[in-house]
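Same chain as my last thread, 112 residues:
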Amino acid sequence: MTEWTTRRRRETVTGSDDTLSHRTPSARVIARMMTVERDKLSKTVARTIAIIDGAVPYLTTARDLIDRFHDLIRGRDRTDLEKWLADAKSSLGASFAKRIVQDQAAVTAALT
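reply #2:
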């Protein structure tokens, strides 16, 4: 990851846009870029995320669902849980939503 980050940083400085020299980041790196400190992204990472958003919209939907779930937990807002579950059932978060439905009473109690 350090090598990839260094190369991306140099490209930002030099303005190089040769896509043949780029390696695709791993799934773990992409997940981190899409979820952690999104308000503090470098130009290169922001550009990479924009490309991913355009090319793989279901990842963007999953990221937004994760954000909404975090907001539910942090805000202890059980009123939006049903809507979140309905939205998550047809996404990459379907298996997670299924597990929450299986123990919905406990999740609702935790949010209360």
